[in-house]
Every structure is written in C-alpha cells, then in structure tokens.
Write a structure and sequence with these properties.
CATH architecture of chain A: Alpha-Beta Barrel
Number of domains of chain A: 1
Shape of chain B: globular
Oligomer: heterodimer
CATH superfamily of chain A: Fe-S hydro-lyase, tartrate dehydratase beta-type, catalytic domain
Radius of gyration of chain B: 20 Å
Largest interface: A-B, 60 and 70 residues
Shape of chain A: globular
Strand content of chain B: 15-25%
Strand order of the largest sheet of chain B: 2-1-3-8-9
Helix content of chain A: 25-40%
Number of strands of chain B: 9
CATH topology of chain A: fumarase
Order of helices and strands of chain B: HHHEHEEEHEHHEEEEH
CATH class of chain A: Alpha Beta
Strand order of the largest sheet of chain A: 2-3-6-7-9
Largest sheet of chain B: 5 strands, mixed
Distance between the termini of chain A: 54 Å
C-alpha cells in the first residue's frame, strides 16, 4: 500500500455513524468496510422520476452511494465476477442529490472529481453527508480487490451492467480522499483556487489569438473576427 | 496463409493485456514523475496508481473499470495473406471484443447514442472502430488495441498561421487547464497533438500521437521533436498535478503528428491518454505465430508518407 506522505489514514465501518462522519478531515485517506451500493443517473431516474420503489432494506444496509459502474460479468452459475471498479464523474448527478439523500438517508457519496462547492454547502452538509473521491482515476484493480461479494443487484436487466444498482460487500475498500466535510468545505475547490492563482502568468508573453473563437468565450453575441 | 481464428486469438489476447498490464514505457515515466512531485496529494495519487498497476497484474484484473472505447488499429503488410478476407478480419475483431468483455471482465461501455441500449459486449453500430494501414515489403499483420476514456481531455481548434507557436502553446495550456481541473483528464497523461490536415485528419493524428507512440519516442523532424519537449515542460509548469491537486505531474510525454493542411489555416487537436494508458499490440507472422508487445510502432516512415513521391505508373513502367 502507498505510504501517504503526511496524509491521515482512516478506516471506516459502514453504515457510517454521524460521529465518524463528523470526524473526517479534508485530504484524509479513507478505507471502507461494510456494504456500498452503486447508483447513478439510471437508478436516480427510476426512483426519483418514475417513482419506482427503493430496494427493500437499502437504508438500513448501507448509507454509502458510489457513483460507479463496475467491470462485471454474469457467470453461468448465476454469480457475478467483478474485475475492476472505477468511479464516474459525480457533478453530472448534482440535480438528483438532495432528493436522493432525503429518500435514502445516504451519508457518504463516493465518486470521481467531486461536486460543486455550493452542493456541499447547500445539499450534502445540511443533510450530514460528505463526499469521498476515488484516487487516480482510478485505482480500479485496488477497488476491485476490496469487493468481497455481490450482495444484491437491482435493475440489471432494465439498465444494463453499467447503470444497475450493485450492492457490494467490501473490505479495506479504498483508497478514497475526503473532499468535503460537514462545514461544506471542498478540497478540490481549495486546491483549484491555489492552481488558479498561478494561471495568468502562464500566458505572459504569448501573443493574443488571431481570431476570437467560440470556446474562448461563452458570449454568443461576440463576433469571431 | 494466416487463419482467421489466429486473428481472433491475437485480438482477444491484446484486449486482455491492454486492460490489465500497464505498458513498461508509461510505468517508467510515472516512476520518474513520483520522484519529482513535491505536492503531497499529487504524490500520494501517483503512488496509489503504482500500487494499482501492481495489483492489476497480480490479480489479472483490469487496472481501470472504465473500459473507455475499446478500438483497433491494424497494419497489414503488402505480402500478408489471411483466410477470411478483410470482412472476415473485422468479424474476428468484433468477436474478440465481445468475448474479452465477458471473460476479463471488461465493463460494457458501448451504448446507442440516442436509445442508450447496448449488447453488453462493447460491440454495436460502428463499434469498435477499426482503422487500417499498410506496410510495404513485409508479410506480417500488426493489431493494436487501445482502451481510452471517452469523455474528457480532448479538444480541437482552428488556429491560423499568424497564431504561430504562441497560438499552439495557448491552446495546449487552455486544454490542459480546462480538463486538468479535478483531474478530469486523468493526468499525468501522454498528450498527443495533431497539427494540420482537415478537421477529421487533425483529430485522428492527435489521437494516434497520444495512443500509438511510446513515452520517450520523438518525432523524426528535429524541430518538432524540440517542440514536443517544450510543450511537455510547459504542461508540467502549470502548477497542477494528478487529480488537479497542486503539483507538477501533468504530462508524461508529448507527441506531435503533422499533416499538410489548408494554406490559410493551422488546425490543432489535443488528446490526453490517461493514467491507465491501455494499449497492446500483437504481430502475427506469415506462419501464424503471434508475438506480443506494448509499443504499437505505428508511425513507420511509410505511415507518415515521408518516403513516397508521386511518379505516375506510366513513368514507372517506362523506366522498368
């Protein structure tokens, strides 16, 4: 396992308690034990838009929603082979999160690249939830090794392997990095701010482009000339 | 005569190898970057990725679960003969893709763009892509597969001759900064730059530059080779590392490919190959034996059409 230089390491049991979640600090490295479920736009649409019921007992079994599509295959004996496990970019699911957290009691959202800082302040932290990001992206083999068993899978036929809801029993499942805390801070946003401070000087001395082009402006009234 | 079943076997094996084994050149590149990285978070990410490569090889499981868009580049020697013809060849590649998707397993990523239905095997309408090229004076076939992510890290812009090298640097920075934030480009990456051609050629050249040249390989034009190194340095001076954290690890290497273009323009494309740069190549000899490697060796002098002039057949016949 990688030695995180100066980074704190935490091992967390799922479902995570409010105390455990409150204790998470930005930039800490987290490993999980327990049950994690996957859900992304396909599942959100089924439940929140089409009104289909949640799998029975979901709220008691797990409070960690992974924005993930596993590399999985159905074996002839009816079991599932899980190869790699990698997250998908979470900010695309922003519009579903408030209602989803309310419906499921989810307290840990795991995915790729975080969500907007405003979502942490307005949606996640008021509901006692935090965001963990996968590392890399992604450590598909390390995470795949952490999945010990597929407990249940829902909407597999309707949504396909990538969009179905998978419930994974996991052990030492990680690494993840804490991106948000209950105060609504965001590690990605903080790091982005630091990077942004240095951007302007990179363009010093480069002459301006010959023509203005779409992509350099989002003002549609501007001319290309 | 190369049997069609041999082609399918080679394609199946490289699908597996690409998904599981990180190419040595890229691994060495990342190892070199860890030592230079001063950002704590970025350095942790790189070390976790090194662990991940090792785990993938040990467990024989894919290093990344996002299969990307698996595809093929094929180079056929002028003297190569194969039993199934070109359409049989393509059928073998589709069969290998479907089988490997189930057996590895790989995530079935390919869906219809509108109806979102899929066959759960990475095969469908116009998928996987198969690009063909040819090689004079040889009797082998090279098949390369690449599994590259499909959402972020690629862009195109029409620049003009007046933009010059500054314009190239500007667009290079624009793309890396835009997609480097939060690590959407899955950097540090091999960055491919396409310059010239028409828009589609430009995209194709940049993609091939990113995916089909190994770390350390330089363009044969010394001035372009110099620009490759300059862009690499520029990318690593942004102040951004893995996952967009503060750091210096953005570009493992930069490769530029060029094509003659419209006299009034200088189209440019930028492509980032990811932290799980998945590529593998099989060479099938005329006797049907297969040798595997991770360097596609795609850009031969013939491939760049550097060595071909334009004598007409009539002139050639006359001199013969």
């Amino acid at each position: 396992m990688a030695e995180p230089k100066g980074l704190r390491q935490v091992r967390l049991k799922l479902p995570a308690s409010p105390q455990d979640i409150a204790a998470l600090q930005l930039g800490s490295v987290v490993y999980l034990d327990g049950v994690v479920y996957t859900a992304r736009e396909g599942v959100y649409e089924r439940v929140l838009v089409r009104g289909e019921p949640l799998p029975e007992g979901l709220c008691e079994i797990s409070n960690a929603n992974f924005h993930c599509s596993p590399a999985a295959a159905l074996e002839p004996d009816g079991s599932y082979a899980i190869g790699g496990v990698t997250a998908t970019a979470s900010f695309r699911f922003s519009k579903y999160m408030a209602e989803w957290l309310d419906r499921t009691g989810t307290k840990i959202v795991i995915g790729k690249a975080g969500m907007p800082r405003e979502d942490y302040q307005k949606v996640l932290s008021p509901r006692g939830a935090v965001y963990l990001t996968t590392v890399g992206y992604g450590t598909g083999a390390l995470l795949g090794r952490g999945v010990k068993r597929v407990r249940e899978v829902h909407w597999l036929e309707e949504l396909g392997i990538a969009q179905a809801m998978w419930m994974f029993e996991v052990e030492n499942f990680g690494p993840f990095i804490v991106d948000s805390d209950l105060a609504g801070n965001s590690l990605f946003a903080q790091q982005g701010d630091l990077v942004n401070e240095r951007i302007a000087r990179l363009y010093d001395g480069l002459k301006p482009p010959a023509l203005h082009r779409y992509g350099e402006t989002d003002d549609r009234k501007r001319e290309v000339m | 005569m190369i049997d069609n079943a041999t082609i399918e076997e080679a394609a199946y094996e490289i699908m597996k190898k690409a998904a599981i084994d990180i190419p040595e050149d890229y691994l060495e590149g990342i190892r070199g970057m860890v030592d230079l990285e001063t950002g704590d978070l970025s350095a942790f990410v790189l070390k976790a990725m090194l662990d991940n490569y090792e785990t993938a090889t040990e467990d024989r499981r894919p290093m990344c679960a996002d299969t990307g868009l698996p595809r093929y580049w094929v180079k056929v020697g002028d003297a190569a003969r194969f039993s199934g013809g070109f359409t049989g060849f393509e059928r073998a590649l589709r069969a290998a893709t479907a089988r490997a998707t189930h057996d590895v397993p790989l995530r079935p990523n390919r869906v219809h763009p509108l109806w979102r239905n899929e066959h759960n095997n990475n095969v469908g309408i116009n998928a996987p892509e198969v690009e063909w090229s040819f090689e004079p004076d040889v009797d082998w076939i090279d098949i390369t597969t690449v599994h590259k992510g499909g959402l972020f890290g690629t862009d195109y812009r029409m620049l003009f001759p007046g933009d010059g090298i500054d314009g190239i640097k500007r667009f290079f920075l624009d793309t890396l900064i835009a997609f480097g934030k939060r690590g959407l480009a899955c950097q540090p990456a091999i960055v491919g730059v396409g310059l010239g051609g028409s828009k589609d050629t430009c995209m194709q050249l940049g993609k091939q530059a990113a995916c089909l040249r190994a770390v350390g390989d330089r363009n044969p034009d010394p001035k372009i080779a110099e620009l490759e190194l300059e862009l690499k340095e520029l990318g690593n001076s942004i102040g951004m590392g893995a996952m967009g954290f503060v750091g210096s690890s953005m570009v493992v290497d930069c490769h530029i490919e060029v094509g003659f273009t419209h006299t009034g323009g200088m189209p440019m494309s930028v492509h980032t190959f990811c932290l799980s740069s998945r590529r593998a190549t099989a060479r099938i000899a005329a006797d049907g034996s297969i040798a595997y490697r991770s360097d596609p060796q795609w850009f031969t002098p013939y491939m760049r059409r550097e060595t071909i002039e334009w004598p007409s057949q009539r002139a050639l016949d006359k001199s013969a």
